[in-house]
Design brief:
The chain is of the alpha+beta class. Helix content is 35%, strand content 25%.
Length: 540
């Protein structure tokens, strides 16, 4: 799907259709304007394409994890170190809207985390109604409107199922959507969509903060409405803050169905679980079947709990690691290793972090007009009771998803056609030719490096005696061509190259360099001149 994500601009966000879906079909006047004012980069301008093979692999990994979580040995081990409230019996509720988040690209695949109160599901259902294809050939990739309707029906059924699983025979009557100061939350528009969805299906629905409730006569009340079920969007996952005391008391007394609940967070979303699930020795000790182990170890990047005794090694390897807090969410307090300062590193060493091997995210070019804008993306499987309900993408720039990138935000995910991306592109997109160009930079000069020669050097099949005992910044440009000439930069990377005394590449020495591979403006100008000509360099 790399070609489609780089070359296909035949599907785009239809703003008029989005307004129609939000205000007419959903019946929420003014919601489009609210989104434009509060979160203008909530919806991406382009969809993301995903191969069926990767979609299947994502599903297989979800099912493998679910099978491990069901093991008594796993549950006992994880809950033994979890907050006490996580050991409270949730009464049968499974937990709604688990989000399994992946980085998927042509040569990389990995589950980066699991969330148990993943936002965006309703927004993605609306987004599915607001895609425009430029021609009939690609229109078949778009899901019919009924698909979004079916997803919304599944959402309502899911909440009703949570109620039934908790042992209630009468029908579900009321739902409270709860978050801290909900009207100020970035995704407040989604709360409104959920409220209207529940109301259309005959359920009373309120949006409220955790302090807006009272508990009397064995029931949780919001004003004069007795609440049956709380849809929990709080990030106080163990209900430990004073503001959540009333909800905590009602939950422990089984006066309300809480979903998702503290036990779900402990079993799935605590980042320490990824260290267990990516450790072959611990999986074997839990009694996980070999076939399931293989799926887990191939799909979950190696993760370990940060410990002071390993500080020297982790600091040395930090450029290939991502550091996350145990109970982190939304990319908060998470850091790429190559961006760490000593101050932050000391905070990480103080405890409460895991180190996860970096997995390259996918990339989506969102415009065929210069300058080319390439955004990263991650993929989210929305999962309930082990079943994938929906797949969405999030486009962004920076270290993590942020909904602050022009052209970025939630994006629909389309699986490629049966004849593969080449068949679609040859029909409607007519891809432009591309080539890679490499350049070596040091204090003395900027010099081109033949791509085939670089491959031979990287494989250890060749040496470069004239470069012995030298180090360089390597610039790798992937260029789109027009009439055989470079037209635009599709992607660029910078890294260190070190040659030993024999002229062989020394990857260990390159990784040990404690500095960012950052060319100067003068060096960039020289590279641009070599690629696009002196005139282009002068204009840049």
């Amino acid at each position: 799907m790399e070609a489609l994500n780089s070359e296909c601009f035949c599907i785009s966000l239809d703003t008029a259709a989005l307004r129609q879906a939000l205000e007419s079909e959903i019946g929420e006047p003014g919601l489009f304007n609210l989104i434009e004012q509060r979160c203008p980069y909530l919806f991406a301008t382009r969809p993301v394409f995903l191969s069926r093979e990767h979609a299947l692999r994502m599903t297989q990994l979800v099912q493998a994890i679910e099978s491990v979580v069901a093991l008594p040995t796993y549950r006992d081990q994880v809950l033994a170190t979890a907050p006490a409230i996580a050991r409270h019996d949730p009464g049968g509720a499974k937990g709604v809207f688990f989000g399994y988040d992946f980085h998927v690209a042509e040569n990389s695949f990995g589950l980066i985390e699991i969330n148990t109160n993943a936002g965006g599901a309703m927004l993605n259902a609306v987004l599915a109604r607001a895609q425009r294809a430029c021609c009939a050939a690609v229109d078949g990739l778009l899901p019919p409107a009924a698909t979004a309707n079916e997803f919304e029906d599944k959402i309502v059924s899911m909440f009703r199922n949570e109620w039934s699983l908790s042992g209630h025979e009468r029908p579900l009557r009321s739902i409270a959507i709860v978050d801290e100061d909900p009207e100020q939350q970035y995704l407040y528009p989604e709360f409104l969509l959920f409220q209207r969805l529940f109301q259309r299906h005959g359920l009373q629905a309120v949006i409220a903060g955790p302090t807006a409730f009272s508990w009397r006569d064995g029931l949780l009340w919001h004003g004069d409405v007795a609440i049956d079920l709380v849809y929990n969007r709080l990030t106080d996952f163990s209900l430990a803050e004073p503001a959540t005391a009333m909800l905590r008391e009602a939950y422990l007394a089984k006066a309300v169905v809480l979903t998702p609940h503290p036990q779900a967070h402990a079993l799935y979303a605590d980042k320490r679980n990824l260290a267990l699930l990516s450790d072959a020795t611990r999986l074997q000790a839990l009694g996980v079947p070999k076939a399931t182990q293989d799926v887990l170890l191939a799909g979950i990047p190696h993760t370990e709990v940060v410990q002071v005794q390993h500080a020297e090694r982790l600091w040395r390897e930090r450029r290939r690691l991502f550091f996350k807090p145990f109970a982190g969410f939304g990319g908060r307090a998470a850091y790429r290793g190559d961006k760490l300062t000593q101050r932050v590193w000391q905070e990480i060493l103080a405890g409460g972090y895991v180190a996860q091997a970096l997995v390259t995210p996918g990339g989506r070019v969102i415009s065929n007009q210069a300058p080319v804008q390439l955004l990263k993306f991650d993929l989210r499987d929305y999962v309930y009771d082990g079943q994938v309900q929906w797949i969405a993408a999030r486009l962004y720039q920076g270290q993590t998803t942020n909904f602050r990138t022009p052209g970025g935000g939630f994006a629909p995910v389309h699986e490629g056609p049966a004849d593969g991306p080449a068949g679609l592109l040859s029909t409607v997109c007519v891809p432009a030719p591309h080539e890679s160009r490499l350049f070596l930079l040091d204090d003395k000069e900027v010099q081109p490096l033949d791509h085939d020669r670089y491959i031979a050097l990287a494989r250890g099949e060749a040496t470069a005696a004239e470069l012995a005992d030298r180090r360089f910044i390597l610039i790798d440009w992937y260029l789109r061509l027009a009439c055989g000439q470079p037209e635009a930069i599709v992607n660029e990377t910078c890294s260190w190259l070190v040659f030993d005394a024999q002229g062989s590449l020394d990857s260990h020495a390159a990784h040990a360099i404690d500095a960012v591979a950052a060319p100067t403006e003068a060096q960039w100008a020289q590279v641009r001149a070599l690629v696009f000509g002196a005139a282009a360099s002068e204009l840049s």
